[in-house]
Design a protein that fits this description.
The protein has 15 helices and nine strands. It is α/β, with parallel strands linked by helices. Belongs to the HesA/MoeB/ThiF family.
Length: 489
C-alpha cells in the first residue's frame, strides 16, 4: 500500500473505531439502565409481598398435621419461613394496584429470546380452551399461563380424588372432592391474578350447548381420557376449523425419551392413537391433527384390578367409557402426564407466537431405511424360494419392520458386541419357521450372507454359527415380540 493510500485509510479506521465504541457505550447504558430499573421494581415487589405477609397468622391444616395434633410449632416441623394458610378459604386475594402486573408478566414469561416482543404480544392476546383437566390438561394450562397466556377456559366434569395427587399440577389435599377445574383455577389465579380463568364443570358433548364453549378459541387442547368424547371433540374441531391439539395415552408408560409430537397420521405403537386414527378415518379425517404420544411399547404393566362389586354391575373387560363412567384404570407414572402436558403447551406457544413447529421430527423418521430393509429382506427370501422369478410376499408391514429394527433390536446388530451398523440387513433366523417379527434378526450384509449360506441354505443352526449367547438373545427377543403381538391383538 502506498503512503498516500495509507494516509487516507487511517482516518477512516479511526472514525469506524470511534463509532463502534460509541455504539457499545450507548447500548451498554441503555441495557444497564433497564437492568437497574428491573432490579428496583423487583425489590419493590418483594417488599410489597413481605409487607402483606407480615401480619398473617399461620397454622398447619394439612391432614397430617390434624392427625398428629400439630399446630404449626417448630416441634411439629413447621417453619416460620414456610407458613400455611389458617384455612382453605383464607387465600390472599390480590386487588388491582397491589402488584406490578407488567413486571410479573415479564418475569413469568421470559420467552422473549425465542418468541420476540411481537410473538409475546400474540401469546398474551390468545385464548385457549383446555378440555380435560387431569394430569395432562392441568400441566398444559399451568405452563400456558406461566408463559403469558392470560385467557384460559377449563372444561372437565370430574372431581379431584386422592389418586389425582400423583400427577395433577395444582391439586392438594384440600381440593379432594372438589371439581378439578376449580382446583386448577384457584392455583392459576395465585400465580397471575389478572388472568381470565373460566371454568365449566361438565362433560363436553357434541350437539349440545357445550359446542359454544369453544367459540373464539385460538387453540383447543384435548386431554380427555374417554375415547368416545375425544373422537367427538376432535371431529367437531376439525370440521369447524378450530385448531385442536390432542394428547394420546400416558398411562402404562415410563420412558420419557419416547414421548414426541407428530400428526395423528404419523403415530406408532400407541394403542389409543391407533384407535383414534381408525375412528377419525371413518369420518373422513386422515391427518391435520397434531398429537403428543409415546412410541414406547408397554411391558408387564396391566390394568388395575376392580372390586368384585364392579363385575356384578356390568361388562368391565375393556378400557372404555360407560354411561356411569366406570372404567378400567391404567397405572400412571406421575411425571409422564406432566411431560405430555408440557409438550402440548410448548407446541401451542410456538404456534400462538407465529413461529409454529411445522415439521416436528418423529423419533422413527427413517422411512428410507425401513424401505431398504424391506426390499432386501424380500429379495433374500425370494432367492430362497422355489420360484426365484416370483417375488415372495413379506407378511410384515413397514411398521413391523420399524418395530423389529428400532424397538426389538435397538437399531443394532443382534450379534455380540451389538455394533451400530452402517448398512444393516434383516434376515430370517430359523429356516424351519416362517418369517415373522419373532423369527427375524439384524445383521450386517456380510453376516446376513453367511447366515443365509450356512443356516437357511445349509445344515447348521444359528447357535452353531453365531454362538450360544446370540441364540439366548434371539430367543429372549422372540418372546418379547410374541408378547407385544399378543398385547396388540
Amino acid at each position: 500500500m502506498s503512503d498516500s493510500t495509507s494516509r487516507f485509510a487511517q482516518p477512516r479506521v479511526l472514525l469506524a473505531a470511534t463509532a463502534a465504541t460509541a455504539a457499545l457505550v450507548t447500548a451498554g447504558s441503555i441495557l444497564g439502565g433497564q437492568a437497574i430499573r428491573r432490579r428496583l421494581r423487583t425489590r419493590e415487589l418483594k417488599r410489597q409481598v413481605e409487607a402483606d405477609l407480615a401480619g398473617q397468622e399461620w397454622a398447619d391444616t394439612t391432614a397430617i398435621g390434624k392427625v398428629n395434633g400439630i399446630e404449626g410449632t417448630e416441634e411439629g416441623g413447621m417453619s416460620p419461613r414456610a407458613p400455611m394458610y389458617a384455612e382453605a378459604g383464607a387465600d390472599k386475594v390480590w386487588a388491582p394496584g397491589e402488584y406490578d402486573e407488567e413486571l410479573i408478566r415479564e418475569q413469568l414469561s421470559r420467552n422473549y429470546t425465542f418468541l420476540g416482543e411481537e410473538g409475546m404480544r400474540k401469546v398474551r392476546d390468545s385464548y385457549v380452551v383446555v378440555v380435560g383437566c387431569g394430569g395432562v390438561g392441568s400441566w398444559c394450562a399451568l405452563m400456558l399461563l406461566r408463559s403469558g397466556v392470560s385467557k384460559i377456559l377449563l372444561i372437565d366434569f370430574d372431581l379431584t380424588t386422592l389418586s389425582s395427587l400423583n400427577r395433577h399440577a395444582a391439586a392438594t389435599l384440600e381440593d379432594v372432592g372438589t371439581p378439578k377445574v376449580e382446583a386448577t383455577r384457584r392455583f392459576l389465579k395465585k400465580i397471575a391474578p389478572w388472568a381470565q380463568i373460566e371454568t365449566r364443570v361438565g362433560l363436553w358433548r357434541k350437539g349440545t350447548e357445550s359446542e359454544g364453549w369453544l367459540e373464539g378459541a385460538d387453540w383447543v387442547v384435548d386431554a380427555i381420557d374417554n375415547i368416545n368424547t375425544k373422537i367427538e371433540l376432535l371431529a367437531h374441531c376439525y370440521k369447524s376449523g378450530l385448531k385442536v391439539f390432542s394428547s394420546m395415552g400416558a398411562g402404562a408408560k415410563c420412558d420419557p425419551t419416547r414421548v414426541q409430537i407428530a400428526d395423528i397420521s404419523n403415530t406408532y405403537e400407541d394403542a389409543l392413537a391407533r384407535n383414534v386414527r381408525i375412528r377419525l378415518r371413518r369420518q373422513g379425517i386422515h391427518s391435520g391433527i397434531p398429537v403428543v404420544y409415546s412410541t414406547e411399547v408397554p411391558g408387564e404393566v396391566k390394568l388395575l384390578p376392580l372390586p368384585d362389586d364392579e363385575f356384578e354391575r356390568g361388562k368391565v373387560n375393556e378400557l372404555g367409557a360407560f354411561d356411569d363412567f366406570r372404567v378400567r384404570i391404567l397405572p400412571v407414572l406421575g411425571p409422564l402426564p406432566c411431560i405430555f402436558g408440557l409438550h402440548a403447551a410448548t407446541y401451542l406457544l410456538m404456534d400462538l407466537a407465529g413461529k409454529p413447529l411445522e415439521f416436528p421430527l418423529p423419533v422413527k423418521n427413517r422411512r428410507k431405511t425401513y424401505d431398504r430393509l424391506d426390499r432386501d429382506l424380500v429379495a433374500r427370501e425370494t432367492r430362497l424360494s422355489d420360484d426365484v422369478h416370483k417375488a415372495k410376499r413379506n407378511p410384515m408391514s413397514q411398521d413391523d419392520i420399524a418395530y423389529i429394527f428400532e424397538d426389538l433390536h435397538q437399531g443394532r446388530s443382534t450379534i455380540p458386541p451389538y455394533p451400530v451398523l452402517t448398512k444393516p440387513s434383516l434376515v430370517r433366523w430359523c429356516k424351519d419357521e416362517p418369517l415373522s417379527p419373532w423369527n427375524c434378526v439384524v445383521m450386517s450384509d456380510k453376516e446376513a450372507d453367511r447366515h443365509t449360506s450356512e443356516v437357511l441354505q445349509g445344515e447348521k443352526t444359528g447357535a452353531e454359527v453365531w454362538g450360544e449367547e446370540t441364540e439366548r438373545i434371539v430367543q429372549k427377543r422372540a418372546r418379547d415380540a410374541r408378547a407385544v403381538w399378543e398385547w396388540r391383538s
